[in-house]
Design a protein that fits this description.
Layout lengths: L1 H7 L2 E2 L4 E2 L5 H16 L5 H22 L1 E2 L5 E2 L4 E2 L5 E3 L4 E2 L4 E2 L4 E3 L9 E2 L4 E2 L4 E3 L3 E2 L4 E2 L4 E2 L7 E4 L4 E4 L14
Helix pairs in contact: 1-2, 2-3
The chain binds coenzyme A.
Coenzyme A binds next to strand 16.
Length: 183
């Protein structure tokens, strides 16, 4: 179950405890619930409507309260970890892989067309303040540095830094979340 894998990512290996002080885990729970309802087959339409009536206002409340906008349309694989909160915006068409780490003030969205779609692979991390914009593909095991502006494809096992970004090959090609998101 995706949510279980998400919550496992809130384990802090330094202090060996769950990060209760990170309120974003509540957002992840609500996102998964809202997404699950959206994925229900249409034959359950009345149940879907009823569940949406309950969940959508809760979802809207936490989105505004925490400053996190991840629409239910955005597809995110298991192991989602939101570090901190505030200023996080993801386009509803985004497709993101497993073990995704996102920090505060990150935007993943369109560059200049509503049809832009960002696709991000597995084991990727986006540092604080970065913007990932356009009709672009980010590979697996990619780290995007703080405040980078990424408007081009990024290959697997890379680091993207700067404005506009430049690509650096990653020395460490194996992903281990226990070493922290920026390994
Ligand atoms: C991208 C990052 C992971 C790279 O770390 P690293 O692998 O140790 O890389 P280095 O520090 O060796 O930097 C490699 C090059 O990228 C540059 N660079 C690194 N981070 C950069 C950034 N955010 N913006 C611009 N350039 C950056 C370095 O100046 C260096 O350039 P050089 O080769 O010309 O000297 C790290 O710098 C970063 O931005 N982490 C995000 C931290 C963050 O968001 N924290 C949030 C905490 S709440």
């Amino acid at each position: 179950m995706k949510l279980v894998k998400d919550l496992r990512r809130y384990h802090n290996p330094v202090f060996n405890r769950f990060e209760w002080n990170e309120p974003s885990f509540v957002y992840v729970v609500v996102y998964r619930m809202a997404r699950k309802i959206r994925e229900m087959p249409n034959c359950f339409f009345p149940i879907k409507v009823l569940l949406n009536i309950i969940v959508v206002p809760i979802y809207a409340f936490f989105s505004i309260f925490m400053g996190i906008s991840i629409p239910r349309g955005a597809q995110i694989g298991a192991g989602l970890r939101i570090y901190h909160f505030g200023g996080i915006v993801i386009n509803p068409k985004a497709i993101i892989g497993e073990n995704f780490s996102i920090h505060q003030e990150v935007t993943i969205g369109v560059k200049n067309s509503y049809f832009d779609q960002v696709i991000i692979g597995d084991n990727c991390t986006i540092g604080a303040g970065a913007k990932v914009l356009g009709n672009i593909k980010i590979g697996n095991n990619v780290t995007i540095g703080a405040n980078a502006v990424v408007m081009c494809d990024v290959p697997d096992n890379s680091i993207a830094v700067g404005v506009p970004c430049r690509i650096i090959e990653k020395k460490n090609k194996t992903y281990d979340p226990n070493r922290g998101p920026f390994n």
